[in-house]
Design brief:
The chain is mostly beta strands and 188 residues long. It is 5% helix and 48% strand. It contains 2 helices and 11 strands; from the N terminus they run ββββααβββββββ. The strands form 2 sheets. Strands 1-2-3-4-5-6-7-8-11 form a 9-stranded antiparallel sheet, with no helix packed on it. It has a two-stranded antiparallel sheet with strand order 9-10. A hairpin with a 4-residue loop joins strand 2 and strand 3. It is globular and about 50 Å long.
Length: 188
């Protein structure tokens, strides 16, 4: 079940996503969209990190996500984010996300060790239009569009991977204790 909209002003938005079958509150967030280039979000959502993971499973065009998604997803996290689009016309068009999360995964309402998961994503839209978080061009754009992204994340945590179930371990890693693992990821 997905519910979203705005309250009192179109700049103040909210969104909730609840999985009825499993009884999981997946997403809940409040957004204040000040200008196109400066917005604020707080709550729990899929970190705007990997395009493949951000795409909803209901909107995937392939049966499964790639095998890389298993190890490199930040998945759903609780936190806050500044984000926006700097529309410099043409090749000077950029999107950005700067986020700080609990770093303990979906449903974890406390931080295990006071270390935050920090994430940044910079997306260059060289043809002046951002590419949405989708797997292919379903809209059939008349003009060529593309984006190039550089993103990074760092966290000191007890987990080595995240999924819809929350924080857990990659194969070969034992159950962790707070601050045991330093996770640094970069993506281009």
């Amino acid at each position: 079940m997905k519910v979203g909209g705005h309250a009192s002003s179109s700049k103040f938005k909210y969104y909730l996503e609840y999985e009825l079958a499993a009884g999981l509150l997946l997403d809940y967030r409040v957004m204040y969209e000040i200008t196109p280039w400066l917005n604020f979000k707080i709550g729990q959502w899929k970190a705007q990190y990997s395009r493949e993971r951000i795409i909803s499973s209901g909107k995937q065009q392939l049966v499964d996500r790639s095998i890389l998604n298993y190890a490199f997803t930040l998945d759903r996290q609780q936190g806050a984010s500044l984000f926006g689009r700097i529309d410099g016309k043409g090749a000077l068009d950029f999107n950005y996300w700067i986020s700080s999360f609990m770093g303990t995964g979906r449903g974890a309402n406390t931080n295990d060790d006071k270390n935050m998961l920090w994430m940044g994503r910079w997306q260059w839209n060289p043809f002046g239009e951002p590419v949405g978080f989708q797997g292919s061009d379903i809209e059939r754009h008349q003009r060529f569009i593309m984006s190039m992204t550089l993103a990074g994340a760092t966290n000191k945590t007890q987990y080595t991977r995240f999924s819809t179930a929350g924080g857990s371990q990659l194969p070969g890693f034992e159950e962790g204790v707070p601050s045991q693992y330093r996770i640094n990821q970069w993506m281009f």
